[in-house]
Amino acid sequence: MFRPRVPCHVLATPFFVLALAHAGCVGDERPDPTFADSSASSAESSGVEPSDVGSSSDPGVTGSMSEDESPDCDPIHRGACALPWPSNLYLASAPERTTGVELRFGETTLPANRNGVHVSPDPYRRMDGYGLGSAIILFWPDLDHEASDLPRQDDLGASIAEDAPVVLLRVDQDGTLERVPYFAEIDVHPATSGSQRSLYIRPAVILEEGTRYVVGVRNLVDTAGDPITPEPAFVALRDGETANDPQLSDRQERFTDLLDILEDYGVDRGEWIVAWDFVTASSDGLHGYMLSMRDRAFDLMPEGAELEILELIPEPNADEFMRVELRYRTPRFTRQAALSPGSSQTWYVLNLGEDGRPTEVRESGEFQFSEGTVYTLIPRSVLDGEPHGLMLYGHGLLGSGSQTYGGYNRRIANDHRFIYFGIDMLGMSSGDVAAVLRLLPELSQFPWLADRLHQGVIDSVLVARGMATRFDALLRTALENSDLFETPEDVPAVNINSDELVYSGISQGGIFGVTVVAVSPDIRHGHMGVPGNNYSTLLHRSSNFTTYLIPMQSSYRNAVDRAILLSTIQLLWDGSDPVSYMHRASGRPFPGQEASRILLAPVRGDYQVEVQTNEFAVRSGFGIDLLENYDVDRTPWGITPVSYPHEGSGVVLWNYGNPWPPASANAPPQDDLGDPHGAPRFDPEHGRQLAHFLRTGEIIDVCEGAPCLRGAALD
């Protein structure tokens, strides 16, 4: 459909802003990005093709350069150091890694904060390639986006046309090429000044693991109508005239190969303004930490998390019978680390063993625990004696497991016989807000968030199994020993179907729920309310990010730097972001696991989570389908909807009248109707579809053979 082949050469709280007032004035103070005249030399090869820069993995030792030249930047595109992004230039030989390379940025490749401190490259060596949601980033300050005829988000077909200004090719192992659909957008976020607007090329699919991609850019014009011309370094590589330049000559073989690939595709190499390639990370690079933690945790606790009931809380209302709060304990794989050497500010990072993998923290030979509260909602429907399934609930942005008690959950639980339980998602819970506040102005500390999220996912998976194996007996004993009932006959016989273990989450819980379902050996069905994937795409488009951008913007003043940094930290986020797990949660499970099914339920015009990232997942061929009657205005390009009822994973769109956001605008939506983000969870038909899917794995039509229109959409 969009895969022509040719032969190939072999988020937000008001107090947060107040707390950051000391950070000083916020603005894009630095002028347009500067670039030293140099070649980078910090990377060596992709896992698929020959070396880019020779045998050195030291970014400071290749070639000679004048005092004002940096060895950490790439002269083929002078928009900013680290551009073009992502690039094989920064992948160095590592034969022990699955792809044969690992990510090694130079000491000054990544942007510096207002104090001149560059983001540390060290944490990124865990990656053996780039993420599956990587955006391509370029910067020309005078680029005319419209006159260059760059494809927009509402015209994806133009991105694979023969005359497309950007060609993105997937290099398959069988020696063929596939065109990858994409859309282009200029950074028009309100926090970005006019002279600092990066060009994003965003793949309209999730990329494949451990795969080489080739990018070529041509036929762009500036605001004066003049052609944008290539840099001398790229011209030398393009024309094979690098013999007298020791830096560029080390890269010549690779560039000759990728330019031959583009020429085989039918484009003369003289047309390219810039071209390069990159390799995506392997499953081990993306999932290795998480899976090693999971496997070790279950070795230590085969029955799941240790649980202890703390309190029984009667709830005499129409939907609830009781709340039960428990303490859980799981193996802890994180240790405290300082914000900077000598700093008293600490938070959690992964505890790595001698083999470089996360290992449990031990003191005096005993492993230490990650502890927290399990919030459990028991509906009044248990009093009828019918069996009730167990549902792990995922809370919203930087929220708490106590959101399990939300009114919409109470109604679904009571109407459809589920016992809800939830915990804090460590790394992005209310308890992490202070740490997030501290790390945003100093992004070398992003492992505080990314590493702790690994523990949060593992705790969720362990607690789910613990509830399935232990909760029934624990609750029965607690009820029998409670003084809440006058006689033994008054104690209700709560009928728990521990074999029915499912997941449901909203917003952030709908995002990370994909990861939890993919990693869990026990949960096979998951419902994701108002979800998305790939935070580096979601953030600019989220109304929540406006607040959290303030401390980042105060420290990293230039918008092009911030564009690079959002893609940089995404590489660590990829260890838990659903963009890395979407295929594993549906059609391609991890080895030894059964395939899961997920139902994604976005809402059109969502102010907080970008809806169309779900369409990227559908378009990727992972076994996630788009259900018929998706929308009244559009059928997403390159997708054939399936009919109801549908056995398998799928996407159902809810519509409360909000328009689609403007195409290719990386800014939060705005309209007169207000944010629909929280609306679907209160809809009884949404709850009915959710419950039926979680019990059966079948998606049924609850909208009478039409799009799911509500509210103003019916006017």
Strand content: 15-25%
Rg estimate, integer Å: 26 Å
Give the strand tally: 27
Structural class: alpha/beta
Distance N terminus to C terminus? 36 Å
Mean pLDDT: 90
User: Please, how many helices?
Assistant: 14
Based on CA inertia axes, which overall geometry fits? globular
Strand order of the largest sheet: 10-11-16-18-17-19-20-21-24-22
Polypeptide structure, described:
There is one protein chain. With 715 residues, the protein is α/β, with parallel strands linked by helices. Helices cover 23% and strands 19% of the residues. The longest helix has 34 residues. The radius of gyration is 26 Å and the shape is globular. The chain starts with 13 loop residues before the first helix and ends in a 6-residue tail after the last strand. The relative contact order is 0.12.
Concise structural overview:
The chain is 23% helix and 19% strand. By secondary structure, it is an alpha/beta fold.
Supply the key terms.
715 residues; four-stranded antiparallel beta sheet; alpha/beta; 27 strands; disordered N terminus; ten-stranded mixed beta sheet
Question: Which secondary structure elements does this structure contain, and how are they paired or packed?
Answer:
Elements: H1 14-19, E1 91-93, E2 101-103, E3 136-138, E4 166-171, E5 177-179, E6 182-186, E7 199-203, E8 212-218, H2 232-239, H3 246-249, H4 252-264, E9 272-279, H5 283-300, E10 306-314, E11 320-331, E12 334-338, E13 346-350, E14 362-363, E15 366-367, E16 369-379, E17 388-394, H6 407-416, E18 418-422, H7 433-439, H8 447-480, E19 496-506, H9 508-519, E20 525-529, H10 535-538, H11 545-555, H12 559-573, E21 597-601, H13 612-619, E22 624-626, E23 646-647, E24 649-651, E25 654-655, H14 684-696, E26 698-699, E27 708-709
Helix pairs in contact: 5-8, 8-9
